[in-house]
Amino acid sequence: QLQLVESGGGLVQPGGSLRLSCAASGFTLGYYAISWFRQAPGKEREGVSCISRYGGTTNYTDSVKGRFTISRGNAKATVYLQMNSLKPEDTAVYYCAAESTRTNYYCSMSVSPMNFWGQGTQVTVSS
Hints:
Layout: E1 3-7, E2 10-12, E3 18-25, E4 32-39, E5 46-51, E6 58-60, E7 68-72, E8 78-83, E9 92-100, E10 116-117, E11 121-125
């Protein structure tokens, strides 16, 4: 069964940090561009960050630039989202998603191209 599994969410105070992980089961994560999305209650799912197949391209939505960092693990089996200086408005369920692509420097933060989704992990930023 092909699936993605996120971990690392939790409750953190404003200004704190969390690191989310995305691991693949049943397929090789290194062959896919990987994206992180989030969805807050009552809001649409939005793209947060993405990374290309070999990590040569990364993109971030404006609201997280300078605070979040996406990266691939050394074995390319895991993708991380390091989140620093967290704000209450970062509170959401965070999802990782994979897109099959033959382009090494491509990644997308749009929902529609994604082939696989994880189940999500809750991030709550509150004092």
